[in-house]
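To: structure subgroup
Subject: Chain for Friday's discussion

All,

I'm putting the inputs and outputs inline so they're searchable in the archive.
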Amino acid sequence: MRLFAELEPATYEDIQKLVQDGKYDSIDQFLRVAAQNQLAVERSQGEPQESNSSSKSTASGGRHWRYMPPEEIPTGPPFGEHRDGILLFSQYYRFFPLKCALLKLAELTADTGGAVPLKEAREYVAEEVWPIREGIVDWEDRNDIKKQNRKSTGLPKDKDQSMKRYLDHYVGKVKTQKGQPAGFGHDLGYVSFQEDSMDWEIQLTLTGARFVQIENPLLANGPETPTLNEEEQAFVVTTIRNELDEEYRFMKYVYNVLNEGEGSYSNQLDQFRDFLEDSPAVGDDPSDNSVRSTAGGAISRMVELGILERGRRRGWYNTKRHPDEYESVSIEA
């Protein structure tokens, strides 16, 4: 149904700026979100107050969103101190799936009052993240969202092998032979692993708790909204700048290569190879697949962070905002 309404010029310009800044895909999307949010407010009047971790009704296809983090989150120290010589694993290509896992881990540890066994954490996240995934996929199907724009990317596709991979990547696991944890949250310093006798326990670090407590637009308001807001983007960039020197150096390198070159990122693989061959995280003679996947993973993360944007053609990316332009934020406030 097409409706017409008059807006003040200043209001229209403010909306246009939000669209240009990438917070919304179009003015139409902004107006739909605004209408849905107002409906949610009207429908919630007189309803009983729910707990912070629960959700309230919105107009996103009848789904319940407004997932909110606990006010108090137990924290522990990160496992290991040195992260400056690593590059993030290529399959850690989205931050929103990590945000979902960390939110649910925060809920669980807030309820228990501290670190929980890793197995228990993985089981809880597996059960709790599935409704989020189903709600997003339902919205995508109803709105015929194209593959490259789907917001469920990175969330588990099934409750078996795909779920195990999701939990390995976004909650974490322990490599038994080395006795060391692994995972996206661990590499960023957002998750605290602690060895307890013959078992491992897990909770958030102070930095991870700070990240979780930044309200996420999609979890708060539904899939019509972006997967990350500007505060979350700046927080992640600050984390990488402070904790992962090599990853930050690679991000800037990728930005400069794409800014100066033309064509798809595949046309720039020789330049990416030059960087990776000199990187302590990779070493001599990386395979073509390794170069392609490492660069592709970094590019996907940079798109979600607002550093790059997808071009009109498949595999083409435009530079949008240099990583150095992100204002540093306090990551342990």
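Points worth raising on Friday:
The CA atoms of residues 186 and 309 lie 27 Å apart.
The two ends are 46 Å apart (CA to CA).

D.
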